Amino acid sequence: MTGPRVLYIDDDEGLRLLTRRALERRGYVVTTAAGGEEGVALATAEPFDLIAIDHYMPGLDGLGTLERLNAAGVKAPVVYVTGSEESRIAVAALKAGAADYVVKTVGDDFFDLLHSAFRSALETGQLRQARDEAEAALQASNERLAVLLREVNHRVANSLQLVSAFVHMQAGALADPAAKAALADTQQRIAAIGQVHRRLYTASDVEAVDLEDYLGALVIELTGAWSTPTACRTLTLSVTPARLETDRAVSLGVIVNELVSNACKYAYPADAAGEVRIRLQRDDQGLVLTVEDDGPGFDPAGPATGTGLGSRIISAMAANLKTRLSYEPGPGTRAVMRIPA
User: Fold this and answer.
1) DSSP-based three-state secondary structure for 229
2) Each residue's pLDDT tens digit, 126-163
3) Which letter, b or e, does each residue of 192-207 get, where b requires 16 or more Cβ atoms within 10 Å of its Cβ?
């Protein structure tokens, strides 16, 4: 079994010979180069475990050689060789990427120091390689998990779309208007959740939802569901760019669906047009959702207009967001919910 392969770059022929012999006695396989240009050519042509570079060399000096090695992508750790009064140069070499430096002296002390620096550089290099391999493996694992999560979201979105289709078919088979309306509401709630998963499997970030994109698509669906030629419902949306974690985005979407549906059903006569405005803005505490209309207004303390299920759903979803819905006075109905960051 051969020892570590070393490239020793020095223009001093005598020192090259002595260094080679001394390192070979210590178990290294040594190749020498008489200058920076030759050393760079050797280092880029074949792999070495370690490289030692002398500072003072004609033509391409040690720092220039180190720069060229870095530019060429040579990964072998470099030990820089300097004179006894050249601490400034040693610091410059370390900043340029050298693993260590050794002060050149007369006698075996220099070779012992070089050997010690090599061992330290090898250990550091092995630790760095292990770290890089672990990081690469972790990144690959995260990428695989992201792909799997996108596929899960894709399948969930498809499954919810299928459930929505079943609900629609069931509604079509019923004669009772109240039952048909209840199933239509259920279909809209399913669609609000499905939109989240549809956004997740088409986005690069599978852990959060772009609210502008999500709410925009949701409002388009709600417009199609509630607006008719005889009772046009104009939904306007204003959203501050923001992202929200998946579970919280689902809760927000369901709340928007309920509030907009209530406004479309109860704020205006069945044969009249009306506008519903949805805003999501940012303040110092987080996000502020506002849904308002120009109808006769709503008394939250009064009797429920419908079954009351929508109000219970809103309360449950608001609890998931650690907040609650409130109504502000004014013409029409103005529902406000503050979502903490």
Assistant:
1) coil
2) 888 888 889 999 998 888 887 787 788 778 888 888 88
3) bbbbbbbbbbebeebe
Helix 13-25 crosses helix 108-172 at what angle (to 10 degrees)? 70
Bridge partners of residue 301, in order along the sequence: none
Closest to 199 measured CA to CA, from 261, 252, 143: 252
User: How far is Cα 5 from Cα 75, in angstroms, rounded to an integer?
Assistant: 13
Contact at 8 Å (CB) between 318 and 324?
A: yes
The CB density around residue 181, as the number of other CB atoms within 10 Å, is: 15
Helix 309-320 and helix 177-201, axial crossing angle in degrees, nearest 10: 20
Nearest to 76 by CA among 99, 110, 102, 101: 99
Phi–psi pair at 292, nearest 5 degrees: -140, 155
Cβ atoms of residues 8 and 32 within 8 Å: yes
293 and 274 Cβ atoms separated by less than 8 Å: yes
- Residue 31 φ then ψ, to 5°: -120, 140
Q: Letter for the amino acid at 134?
A: A
Encode pLDDT of 65-114 as tens digits: 999 999 999 989 999 998 767 788 888 999 999 999 998 887 788 899 99
Q: Are 96 and 140 in contact (CB under 8 A)?
A: no
37 touches 62 (CB < 8 A): no
Separation between Cα atoms, residue 83 and residue 10, nearest integer Å:
13
Q: How far is CA 320 from CA 256, 283, 312, 313, in A?
A: 14, 20, 13, 11
Q: Show the domains of the chain with their CATH numbers.
A: 5-104 (3.40.50.2300), 208-341 (3.30.565.10)
Strands 334-340 and 286-293: antiparallel
Query: Which residue has better confidence, 216 or 203?
Result: 216
**pTM: predicted TM-score of the whole model, two decimal places:** 0.59
pLDDT at 109: 86
- Which among 114, 34, 109 is positioned nearest to 77, based on CA atoms? 114
